[in-house]
Specification:
Blueprint: E1 9-14, H1 18-26, E2 31-38, E3 46-47, E4 58-61, H2 69-78, E5 83-84, H3 93-99, E6 106-109, H4 117-127, E7 133-136, E8 139-140, H5 142-149, E9 154-162, E10 165-172, H6 175-183, E11 193-197, E12 207-212, E13 219-224, H7 227-239, E14 248-251, H8 265-268
Parallel strand pairs: 1-2, 1-4, 2-3, 4-5, 5-6, 6-14, 10-11
Antiparallel strand pairs: 7-12, 8-9, 9-10, 12-13
Helix pairs in contact: 1-7
Length: 269
């Protein structure tokens, strides 16, 4: 099914890190990129404060969940923009959702692989009378890595998730202060966390995860070479749902799967 330029969804990208670049590189023909916006001075990016001067159907928010999303996403809605994000602070999703005032706009939050794809699978398994178990890793968590980098005095960092633990690799000259900040950070309370101070970090993007019933009657296993690319493709799919939803803030649990394709429902049936 071909989408003409006239019918294309006009999109903007806020944040131009690994996820923002992945969104840009994976946009399908039914979406036109209006611009990439950043608070930093980045070649090819438009200052974020100027986003109000552009007509955009959907804004992909590609900043961090820890500090950026709770501030910037509500502000985008006050300016009248619809948004899709991959907010991944699991324990705070309900509060984050409530903070986004969407009387005339639509927000899709947590559109990643978990929360996101795995959340939907857990609903199916539970509805079928089964008990889902979720495991993560090994691989790099974008959200936790961003949270590490936002800690004062951290020069660079990367967080690797394993099925039963997290390992933080950190470059800093202030080890004691940074160690304490990580150990008390809400983002690192769900799994045992080991902190390793290093002199060099080799960037990696692979990750893996699984949601399955104890007897493997139903199992979804994800092994991705690029966490940003996989997350970007999920966010792009959910952007298509914006025009089919009423105003409000929605997690992916609340959105029918047919909304992810720009097809007539009769065609899908």
């Amino acid at each position: 099914m071909e989408t003409t330029q006239k019918d294309a969804i006009c999109v903007g990208i806020v944040g131009f890190g690994n996820l923002g670049r992945a969104i840009r590189d994976n946009l399908p023909p039914d979406m036109n990129l209006v611009g990439i916006f950043s608070r930093r001075k980045v070649d090819g990016c438009i200052p974020l404060k100027d986003i109000k001067n552009h007509k955009i159907d959907v804004v992909f928010f590609c900043g961090g969940s820890d500090r950026d999303a709770p501030i910037i996403v509500p502000k985008l809605h006050r300016m009248g923009f619809n948004t899709v994000d991959s907010y991944d602070n699991h324990n705070n999703i309900t509060n984050y959702k409530k903070s986004i005032k969407t009387k005339k706009t639509t927000a899709i939050i947590g559109a990643g692989w978990d929360p996101g794809l795995f959340s939907v699978m857990r609903i199916y398994m539970t509805a079928f009378g089964l008990t889902p178990n979720t495991s993560y890793g090994p691989g790099v968590s974008m959200g936790h890595t961003n949270a590490l980098k936002a800690i004062p005095d951290v020069t660079d960092a990367q967080q690797i998730t394993y099925p039963n633990k997290r390992v933080c690799y950190v470059i800093t000259k202030h080890k004691k202060q940074v160690h304490g900040a990580i150990k008390t950070h809400p983002y690192f309370q769900d799994l045992p966390t080991t902190i390793k101070f290093v002199k060099k970090i080799t960037p990696s993007f692979h990750h893996a995860g699984e949601v399955a019933t104890p007897d493997n009657q139903i199992k979804l296993t994800v092994k991705m070479q690029s966490n940003p690319t996989f997350t970007a493709r999920i966010m792009i799919a959910y952007a298509r749902a914006i025009k089919k939803l009423d105003s409000g803030a929605f997690t992916v649990d609340e959105i029918p799967p047919s909304y992810l394709l720009d097809y007539d429902i009769t065609y899908l049936i």
